[in-house]
Amino acid sequence: MIRYFEKQMEELNYSIHSLDENIFERWVEDATEVLEKGHKIIASGLGKNVPICEKFVGSMISMGYEACFLHTNSAVHGDMGVVKDGDMVILLTKSGETEESVNLVRLLISLLHHFQTYVNIFEVLYFDYHHSPFQLPLAVYFS
Length: 143
Prior knowledge:
- With 143 residues, this protein is of the alpha/beta class.
- The chain has one domain (2-142): Glucose-6-phosphate isomerase like protein, domain 1 (Rossmann fold, 3-Layer(aba) Sandwich).
- The chain is 46% helix and 20% strand.
- The longest helix has 17 residues, at 2-18.
């Protein structure tokens, strides 16, 4: 059992060090700015990413920040009204290629054209799982 947790810690350590630190720091700075301006961070995901989004949102709320969860399927079926000018949307996706995720990104891009003030940023941060056959995008976001 201890070896299981050691392996998990090795994966996490490797994954954290595989991130582009400059992009990650800019992402954190942008998120901080979004919150300081009174806007919210919206976490969106599908499947196994849903509990991660919910935990993130719960943690943000418990610290007094504005945050909400937007299920990727619900977003593409009419729940985009939760996204307001100045908000940040974080989309957690394994491949970034599911129909729902691609459609959500398209919706977000079209929504940006209706907003008056925004910085159009589109980044994909990867956790590189060296024992897995895929790279897991940490976040796709707009602010």
